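Protocol step 4 of 5: obtain the predicted structure for the target chain.
Materials: sequence only (see below). No template structures provided, no constraints applied. The aim of this step is simply to have a reference model before the mutagenesis design in step 5. Sequence pasted as it appears in the construct record:
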Amino acid sequence: MPRALGTVVAAALTEAGVRRGDRLVVAVSGGVDSMVLLDVLVRLVPRLGLGLHVVHVHHGLRGRSADREAALVAAEAARHALPVSVERLEAATRARGTSVQVWARSARYARLEAVRRRIRAAWVLTAHNRNDQAETVLLNLLRGAGPRGLAGIPPARGRILRPLLGAWRAEIDRYAAARDIRFREDPSNRSVAYRRNRVRRQLLPMLAREYNPRILEALAALAEQAREDDDALTSLVAALGPTAVLARGRAVGVSRRILSGAPPAVARRLLQEAFRRATAASHGLTRRHLAVLAQLAERGGDVRLPGGLRAWATAQYVWIGPAGRTTRRSRLDGRPDSRGNGAGVTLQPGRWARWAPGGCSVRVRRATGGAIRLGRRDPYREILDATVLDEPLRLRAWRAGDRFQPLGLRGRKKLQDFFVDAKVPREARARVPLLLAGDRIAWVVGHRIADEFRWRGGRVACVAEVRLAEGCDGLSAGSDAAVGC
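Step 4 output (C-alpha cells):
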C-alpha cells in the first residue's frame, strides 16, 4: 500500500495511546474515506496486533440507496473476516425542531459509543480528514466561533479517534484508486442545500481561485495553531478549577473573585466549563452569552441561558443551573426589567438598590462573627440565613395571590391578609417592597421576614437593611406616612 497513508494512520494510533491487543470500533459509512480507513487498518493489524469491529449506522433516511451502502460495508467486513454491526436508526425519534443533520450526527455517535461499550472496545475510529478540518474551521469562523471553534476537529476526544485527520482527501482518493477500493458516494454530498456542501463546492473553490490558492493548507494550519493555544488555556483553567469552580446539587458556580482577577480568556473558559458541567448538552455558550455572564459577575443579576438553564450572581459566585418553572424571565443583558418596579429591581449583595415607590433603598450583605448582631427589634434591619445570598435577589411590589410564612407563625399566609393584620392601608401596600430570594418572599421589608429564611445561628449570616430617603418617615405599620413617602 502507499507508504505515506499507512504511516499517517499508524502514527496517529501510537500518539493517541492505542496499544497492542486493543479492540477498535471502526465507523464505516461506505464512502471513500471510511472504506480507505478500513483497508489501511486491515493491513496494519498484523503489525500492530489490533482487533477490529466494523460498525455501520443506517439512518433510515435514504431508502434503497442507504440499504446498498449497508450491504457494501457488511460484504467488505465479511471479506476480511471481521465482525460487523449494522445499527439502524428511526427517523421518527428525531425531536421536533432538531435539524436532520444535528439529529443524525448525535444519534450516530450515540450508537457508536453503545457498540464500543458493548464489545468493550478501547476506541471508536472515524474517517475525518484534513479537508474536513479546513471546512470545519471555515464554518466555525463564519458563525463567529472563538479560539476553540477555530481549533476545528480534535484528533481525539473522549474515546473518539480520527487517525486520517492528517491526510488530505486527494491522498485518500489516490489510495482508493491504487488499491481499487469499492465505495459508494452519498448522493446528499452533492446537494448544495447543506451549508457544508456549499462551503466545499462553492466558497472554498472561490477563495482558492481569487484569494489564496493554498486556502485549505492555511485553514488546516490555523486549526493546529489554535489547538495549541486552546491546550494551553485548557491546562491553565484545569489548574484553577479546584478553587474556582464549585458544584452544589445541579448548579455549578464560578468564584467571582477569581473571575475578576483572571484574564478575559481564562474567565470565559471557566464560565464555559461551568455551563458544560451544568448541562448534558455538548454545545457551549456563544460570545454574546459569555459577555452577559461577564457583566453578571461584575454587577449581579439573573439571566436566561440555552438548554433550560439560567445564571445568577450571589456574593461569592456566579451560578449556572436549571431554570425553575416559575423563575422570572430576565432580560439577557441582566438590567432591571424595563416594565418598572412592579416587575422587580435586581439586588447585588453589598450594594444599595433603590425602591422608588417607597422612597428607600435596600441592601443585603454577608456578615460573619461579631458583625452578626440581633440587638433590639429594628424594622429596618434583619438577620437572615446565609442561604439567601445563594439565590438571585430582587425587590418587587406585592401581587394578588402572594403567600409566605411569617416568622413565628405556623403555615403560610396570604400577603393580603398579613397586610390587613399589620394595619397597612390598602393604598400604601404597593409602596412596601418585598425582598425575594429566587421566587420566594424572604422579607416583607419593614415588617416581617419569612420563617424559612430565619437565621439559625452559626458564623455566617445575611444582613438585610433599609436606608430611608431624606424626609421619608419609613415603611413600618401604623400610619399612612409610615409606609412610604
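Step 4 remarks: The two ends are 89 Å apart (CA to CA). The CA atoms of residues 199 and 483 lie 66 Å apart.
Proceed to step 5.
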